[in-house]
């Protein structure tokens, strides 16, 4: 467990770990490419290490250099070999869903399984479209969850899929299977979800196009691929990890924090828009565009925040940051409404339930709804015992809440933050002393 006390002003600068989504993809696409892909600023969190482990099991040499670079010795789009044992995906939903698209097109059978949390998450959302392409995927317990047995097929066919949700994981699984299909594959989603897959696959040489339609929906098309080619990747700082330091600097009076090299991809950085709408003082410095991913240094100063309504097309761009946004809302003046976020129920925990439970424990006025929550902000919060239920984002969000609350907050199961941010508590401490 970890004790958090109310904080004096936060000062200084911090460089956050590499983006988790981009780190995952750099390993996957590097493994499928010809040549050696070099990855700098890779996130060595538990989830991304699960991806490395899976591809090593399928014959890909992946090494860490003394300067911190990860080298992926790709074997080409048809270079994977059958694993000798079950592929252990740990707690990583990204690994599970994206790799399923790749495995569907191999010439071998594989089994994916993870920890108890991962094996309780729904996988039907990828099983359905991949099966439409001819994939043979079976939930071994018959409940639509992992363990999944995937009997690879060399004759997948391209489809057009109307996705009911804007989900980068669903879209990516289909696009990755589409690399191997007999004709073009397209995905239509109600709003453009995170587009890291599209940007990086294009960089590796895939023929891929995105169109934003008049109604705000998006259509992504990919052609069958003969070969991908190794790249040098610089992973930007993870906006999801930056979110906790942004929030801490906004909430603790007198704070001023510079967060270096943060990815600000517009399909991902909805929290910045919401913070601005709430009255946050955030300045963008040193904006850059590298490898298709925009970055900036963020200068954040403590601010008086007010409630907002968060809904619609912005939700896919901040879905992982909603626990942190809910904490911000509890300290803001007035009412904040979060809706259209039913996706929260199928994360590492049901985050509507876990956020509500822990905010109430700290004295907040919060009402859960079917697709979000209503928060009456402005009440002073007090320390409490926080149950993250092994959900890293809950643990980190409420650690920040503890900095701005009266008394002492205890975070149980603190080790769960290692999934995405090893060293998080130590990094937070450097700004609070």
From TrEMBL:
It catalyses: 3-phosphoshikimate + phosphoenolpyruvate = 5-O-(1-carboxyvinyl)-3-phosphoshikimate + phosphate. The keyword Phosphoprotein does not apply. Its main location: cytoplasm. SUPFAM superfamilies: EPT/RTPC-like (SSF55205). The active site is at residue 320. It is an enzyme of class 2 (transferase). Residues 5-428 form the Enolpyruvate transferase domain. 3-phosphoshikimate binds at residues 20-21, 25, 167, 169, 320, 347. It is found in: Cytoplasm. Phosphoenolpyruvate binds at residues 20, 93, 121, 169, 351, 393. It comes from the Bacteria. Keywords: Amino-acid biosynthesis, Aromatic amino acid biosynthesis, Cytoplasm, Transferase. Belongs to the EPSP synthase family. Monomer. Catalyzes the transfer of the enolpyruvyl moiety of phosphoenolpyruvate (PEP) to the 5-hydroxyl of shikimate-3-phosphate (S3P) to produce enolpyruvyl shikimate-3-phosphate and inorganic phosphate. This is 3-phosphoshikimate 1-carboxyvinyltransferase. It comes from Drancourtella massiliensis. The lineage of its organism: Bacteria, Bacillati, Bacillota, Clostridia, Eubacteriales. The gene is aroA.
């Amino acid at each position: 467990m970890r004790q958090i006390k109310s904080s004096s002003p936060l000062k200084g600068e911090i460089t956050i770990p590499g983006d988790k989504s981009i780190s995952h993809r750099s390993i996957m696409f590097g493994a499928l490419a010809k040549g050696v892909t070099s990855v700098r600023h890779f996130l060595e969190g538990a989830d991304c290490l699960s991806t490395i482990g899976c591809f090593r099991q399928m014959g890909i040499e992946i090494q860490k250099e003394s300067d911190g670079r990860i080298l992926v010795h790709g074997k080409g789009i048809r270079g994977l070999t059958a694993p000798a044992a079950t592929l252990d995906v740990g707690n990583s939903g990204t690994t599970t869903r994206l790799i399923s698209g790749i495995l569907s097109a191999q010439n071998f059978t594989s089994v994916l399984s993870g920890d108890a949390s991962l094996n309780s998450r729904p996988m039907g959302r990828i099983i359905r479209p991949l099966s439409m392409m001819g994939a043979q995927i079976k939930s071994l317990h018959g409940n639509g969850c992992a363990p999944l047995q995937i009997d690879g097929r060399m004759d997948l066919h391209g489809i057009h899929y109307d996705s009911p949700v804007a989900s980068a994981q669903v879209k990516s699984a289909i696009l990755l299977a589409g690399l191997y299909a007999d004709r073009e594959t397209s995905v239509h989603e109600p709003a453009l979800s995170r587009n890291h897959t599209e940007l990086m696959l294009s960089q590796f040489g895939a023929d891929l196009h995105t169109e934003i339609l008049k109604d705000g929906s998006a259509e992504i098309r990919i052609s069958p691929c003969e070969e991908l080619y190794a790249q040098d990747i610089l992973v930007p700082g993870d906006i999801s990890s930056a979110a906790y330091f942004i929030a801490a600097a906004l909430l603790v009076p007198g704070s001023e924090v510079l967060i270096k090299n943060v990815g600000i991809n517009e399909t991902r950085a909805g929290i910045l828009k919401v913070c601005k709408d709430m009255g946050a003082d955030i300045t963008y410095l040193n904006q850059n565009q590298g490898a298709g991913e925009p970055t900036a240094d963020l200068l954040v100063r403590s601010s008086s925040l007010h409630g907002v309504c968060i809904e619609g097309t912005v939700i896919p761009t901040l879905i992982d940051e909603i626990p942190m946004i809910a904490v911000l809302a509890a300290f803001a003046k007035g009412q904040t409404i979060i809706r259209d976020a039913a996706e929260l129920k199928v994360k590492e925990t049901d985050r509507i339930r876990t956020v509500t439970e822990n905010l109430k424990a700290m004295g907040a006025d919060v009402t859960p709804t079917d697709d979000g929550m209503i928060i009456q902000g402005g009440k002073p919060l007090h320390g409490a015992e926080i149950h993250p239920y092994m959900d890293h984002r809950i643990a980190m969000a409420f650690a920040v809440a503890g900095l701005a609350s009266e008394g002492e907050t205890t975070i149980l199961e603190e080790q769960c933050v290692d999934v995405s941010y090893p060293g998080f508590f130590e990094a937070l401490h450097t700004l609070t002393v």
